[in-house]
Design a protein that fits this description.
This is Rrf2 family transcriptional regulator. With 144 residues, the protein is mostly helical. It has one domain: Winged helix-like DNA-binding domain superfamily/Winged helix DNA-binding domain (Arc Repressor Mutant, subunit A, Orthogonal Bundle), CATH 1.10.10.10. Helix content is 58%, strand content 4%. Strands 1-2 form a two-stranded antiparallel sheet. A hairpin with a 5-residue loop joins β1 and β2.
């Protein structure tokens, strides 16, 4: 459903949230290792999350990635999806056709509208803090 970059982005943001709750900043290398993602790929994904004010990047010897405690509740999954994959999942055709809308629907259009609506609601109502708290026990799931 999501691109590989988006999946890694969500996992990276959750890992950063978990570490930030413990007062730690984490490096690209540590994040890549923990989410089982190539370092260069992780760096590009983190760059998108930083540009979109989802995580903070702090430079220097004690630097790394972090997220402010207040922001953990404000950052919703739909923000991460939009930052990495754009809004195609919220607006695009379920079959990937260019010309699909209510006036010219594809065979899946009406069914996909309900799925997209439910997905949008879930992504807009789920925040990083909620995910981090749900995963605090047994973080091994962050790796595939």
């Amino acid at each position: 459903m999501f691109s590989k970059a988006c999946e890694y982005g969500i996992r990276a943001a959750v890992y950063i949230t978990l570490q930030s709750l413990e007062g730690r900043r984490v490096s690209v290398n540590e994040i890549a290792e923990e989410i089982d993602s190539p370092i260069a790929f992780t760096a590009k994904t983190l760059q998108l999350l930083t540009r979109n004010d989802i995580v903070k990047s702090v430079k220097g010897p004690t630097g790394g990635f972090e997220i402010d405690r207040e922001e953990m509740n404000n950052v919703k999954l739909n923000m991460i999806v939009k930052a990495i994959d754009g809004d195609k999942i919220f607006k695009g055709c379920g079959l990937g056709l260019k010309e699909c809308n209510a006036n010219q629907p594809c065979p899946l259009h009406d069914k996909f509208v309900d799925i997209r609506t439910n997905l949008s609601k879930m992504l807009a109502s789920t925040n990083l803090y909620e995910l981090a708290m749900g995963l605090e026990v047994g973080m091994t799931f962050l790796k595939r």
